[in-house]
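Might I ask for a little of your time on a matter of protein folding? Here, with my thanks, is the record as I have it:
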Amino acid sequence: MGTSLESRAEQAEEIVDRLEDTYPDSTISLRYSSRLELLIAVILSAQCTDERVNEETKDLFKTYDGPEEYANASQEELAEALNSITYYNNKAKYIRSACETIVEEHDGEVPDTMDELTELSGVGRKTANVVLQHGHDVVEGIVVDTHVQRLSRRLGLTEAERPERIEAELMEIVPEVHWQQFTHLCIDHGRAVCTARSPDCSDCVLADICPSERGDSEIDLASGNSW
């Protein structure tokens, strides 16, 4: 079993340093060319892989141009265009409603504040953080997706379970300059090594400081269950 560093702040900094060396080109994997496309892609990515979203949006972004066209599309038409995406009916509703609000209340522009973004249908704090960071260059939080949630618990950075609380605790220990990159590093490591079901601890650059490391530890701190 790995041994965490003395403080969670030291642990967080060491994790960032090692993962930056391992994934020097880590960045967002969703493809988009505008703030609206980014917003739509992030809404679609909930409980769906970025790879699948990128495949779907190739045609979607060619078909619809601007928030008015999404807002005016019929529910059936937009849902059909998204039918390979998980929960595509609900996501079509979110996109249509969000675009209606963007047209009616924001002059057709994707808003640039947390409060305004989270008032849009289908947009929670995680989605808003992504849009702010990559659409507006505003970093005011840490995006907590399933990879960040899993790794931050496994690595002893938090014991919280809800994304909002995890984010708050991470913001206290991860240097602000790394808030945006921390998410991308966790996603890359979560996909490549620290997977949900079968993490490859033998090939992990964090194994010696990970209290969940499978060599000796009996518990996966991400789930609280035995390995």
About this structure: The chain has two domains: 8-26+143-226, 35-135. The longest strand covers residues 219-220.
